[in-house]
Specification:
It is a multi-pass membrane protein. It is built from 11 helices and 2 strands, in the order H-H-H-H-H-H-E-E-H-H-H-H-H. By secondary structure, the protein is mostly helical. It has one domain. A hairpin with a 2-residue loop joins strand 1 and strand 2.
Length: 277
Amino acid sequence: MTILTFTLILLLGAYLAGLAGSLTGLGGGVVIIPLLTLFFHVDIRYAIGAALIASIATSSGSASAYVKEGITNIRLGMFLEIATTAGAVLGAILAIYTPVNIVAILFGATLIFSAAMTMRKKHEGALAEGSQLSYLLKLNSSYPTKDGIIDYKLKNIGGGFSIMTLAGILSGLLGIGSGALKVLAMDSAMRVPFRVSTTTSNFMVGVTAAASAVVYLQRGYIDPGIAFPVIIGVLAGAFTGSKLLMKIDVKWLKVIFSFAITAIALNMIYNGFNHKF
């Protein structure tokens, strides 16, 4: 395969990864890493390094549009970043010393969990009363809908913070945005409306990935020849997805995407157990 062919296929794959990640809130890494490792046979640590850069690009491309629309809860995102950033640095350090086949197995298991999370029942309704801590930290907010502005209150702030720490560790270890865990923390634990939790997750992904990427950069696991096409493709896909999210029903897209991700995850787990990485 020539360098030009490699770059063009990688650009297309990165674009689709950014588009799917933006629409589902899972981040582009869930597509980029399998594409690089299974199709191009790139070492998984270099794939993770590129995926972290992709996550930063995804967050930058989609988060700006969501913030402009007034959907993202910036105060909540910055508060939870304390947990995810600390976890991301720890996860990135662990990744350096973890065998690549174990990383592949953990990656596949996380993908299956992420696919399952996209199919769960979403909490669209807003709580009328939040926890004392949500008022103390001023995390309650509102977001616009076609029917007007909806106010919402939050609960279980401590539980959500703990889940976010785990999300950060997985982000640093596996190179993915851990969007499923972040949305789980906000949607299920803290009862943030799903549209707000998805957009706030996108807002947070970039900061979490940046913390991990520093460790990978110091270890030499970020290859510009791989990362640069990934950045361009993912950023374009994320920008497209942020525009489409406001106009289309992504229900069936999430179903198809979940089945595809599950198939990829099983392949990653199989190869991991057979030491093919």
